[in-house]
């Protein structure tokens, strides 16, 4: 997992509340067995017209937001089902940071497990960022995980809270597997010593 330290990127404004996981990645695309390649299908029903061409009315399709890496949305983002494909799709679409007034708990946890940073800011602060991004396509934010701040070229906009353990994991690029592998030496030593502690399968059969 790629470490998250300090990210600067264009803001993609999604001024909608209660964006659920079926809207983020519709169920017909969950048949894929890989964890990658979901980006083209993110927000599919909003992003494309019935003939498959880009929908110019969808916020993130408008000029200036093509390479956005900071998604800013309304409250209760990621509600609905617990599908982990939602953060996979957003990450594959290019987003590393999601800012909203609130998140659904399971989606919030899944973001950290997939190297993305969900940032909770006050609703009026989020509205201010959305307004700036809509008025000035290409508007950028810097999100500093170490200092726990969100800023633009004019200075710090807000500070945010983050669990210390989750912060550590993101800064080091550690998911659950990575955390386990930090103890690889101890695990290997334990496995080598098992035969001295437990009877092997052959001895168990003859007992």
Percent of residues in helical segments? 25-40%
Output the structural class.
alpha/beta
Total number of helical segments? 9
The CATH superfamily name is: Aconitase, domain 4
Poorly predicted ranges: 201-207
Order of helices and strands: EHHEHEHEHEEEHHHH
Proportion of strand residues: 15-25%
Largest sheet: 7 strands, mixed
CATH class: Alpha Beta
- The total beta strand count reads 7
Q: In words, what does this structure look like?
A:
By secondary structure, the chain is an alpha/beta fold. It has a single domain, classed as Aconitase, domain 4, CATH 3.20.19.10. The chain contains nine helices and seven strands. The chain has a seven-stranded mixed sheet. The longest helix has 14 residues, at 184-197. Mean pLDDT is 89; it is low at 201-207.
Summarize the structure.
The chain has one domain: Aconitase, domain 4, CATH 3.20.19.
What key attributes describe this structure?
single chain, Aconitase, domain 4, 36% helix, 9 helices, disordered C terminus, alpha/beta, 207 residues, seven-stranded mixed beta sheet
List the helices and strands and how they pair.
Blueprint: E1 6-14, H1 21-24, H2 44-47, E2 70-73, H3 85-93, E3 97-100, H4 105-113, E4 117-120, H5 123-135, E5 140-144, E6 149-152, E7 155-159, H6 164-172, H7 176-181, H8 184-197, H9 201-206
Parallel strand pairs: 1-2, 2-3, 3-4
Antiparallel strand pairs: 1-5, 5-6, 6-7
